[in-house]
């Protein structure tokens, strides 16, 4: 890579960073649907053409921010051994949320996208279903699917509360709580 290419690359990285920061700052005050490209550009001190060179609209920018965070979380979970326990997966997810707490607070806030957290919790879906069905000779997959949906949505509420309380408990404590509640629910089906 030439010096000119590195300089352009640094400018692109800087531009994307200030656009991201500007969007997140605006999302602390209002929902994504009410944020305009003009507001983002004004706050970032970037012109609209530069914004459109990278993103189609504020939703596209938010989507790319979420995709980046999702990949970070998924990659950290993916580094675990293949036969990791559900508790280990939950701990890793909670650690990743804690490591990105400010971003997660905004994304999961009333002005953000609550579906993002559901997407994150479904990282543990395959491992959970595998664990649950191993202990049963004739598992009822339909009930287990409903159980996972119930547990995932309950976990979302717990994580939202945890974020709202400035993460008073450690990620390991939250993960253990989620596992205990999960195991209580599973006991009725396995």
Plain-language structure description:
The protein is mostly helical and 190 residues long. The protein folds into 2 domains: 1-55, Arc Repressor Mutant, subunit A, CATH 1.10.10; 65-190, no CATH class. Helix content is 73%, strand content 0%. Helix 1 packs across helix 4 (58-78) and helix 9 (141-164) runs antiparallel to helix 10. The longest helix has 25 residues, at 3-27.
Show the helix and strand layout.
Elements: H1 3-27, H2 37-44, H3 48-54, H4 58-78, H5 86-99, H6 101-107, H7 115-121, H8 125-134, H9 141-164, H10 171-186
Helix pairs in contact: 1-2, 1-4, 4-5, 5-10, 8-9, 9-10
Provide a brief overview of the structure.
This protein has 190 residues and is mainly alpha-helical.
Compute the average pLDDT: 85
Mind describing the biggest β-sheet? none
In percent terms, what proportion of residues is strand? Answer: under 5%
| Rg (C-alpha, Å) | 20 Å
Residues in helices, as a percent range = over 70%
Along the chain, the helix and strand elements come as HHHHHHHHHH
**Cα end-to-end separation:** 57 Å
Q: Class by helix and strand content?
A: mainly alpha
Number of helices: 10
Shape: elongated
Q: Quick one: how many beta strands?
A: 0
Number of domains: 2
Low-confidence stretches: none
């Amino acid at each position: 890579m030439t010096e000119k290419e590195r300089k352009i690359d640094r400018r692109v990285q800087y531009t994307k960073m200030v656009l991201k920061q500007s969007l997140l700052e605006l999302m602390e005050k209002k929902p994504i649907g009410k944020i305009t490209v003009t507001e983002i550009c004004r706050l970032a001190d970037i012109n609209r053409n530069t914004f459109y060179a990278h993103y189609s609209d504020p939703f596209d920018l938010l989507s790319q921010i979420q995709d980046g965070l999702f990949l970070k979380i998924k990659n950290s979970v993916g580094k675990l051994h293949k036969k990791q326990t559900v508790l280990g997966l939950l701990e890793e997810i909670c650690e990743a949320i804690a490591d990105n707490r400010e971003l997660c607070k905004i994304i999961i806030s009333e002005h953000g996208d609550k579906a993002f957290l559901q997407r994150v919790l479904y990282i543990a879906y395959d491992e959970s279903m595998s664990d649950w069905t191993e202990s049963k000779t004739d598992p009822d997959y339909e009930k287990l699917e409903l159980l996972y949906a119930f547990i995932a949505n309950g976990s979302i509420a717990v994580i939202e509360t945890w974020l709202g309380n400035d993460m008073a408990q450690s990620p390991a404590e939250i993960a253990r709580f989620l596992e205990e509640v999960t195991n209580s629910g599973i006991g009725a089906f396995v």
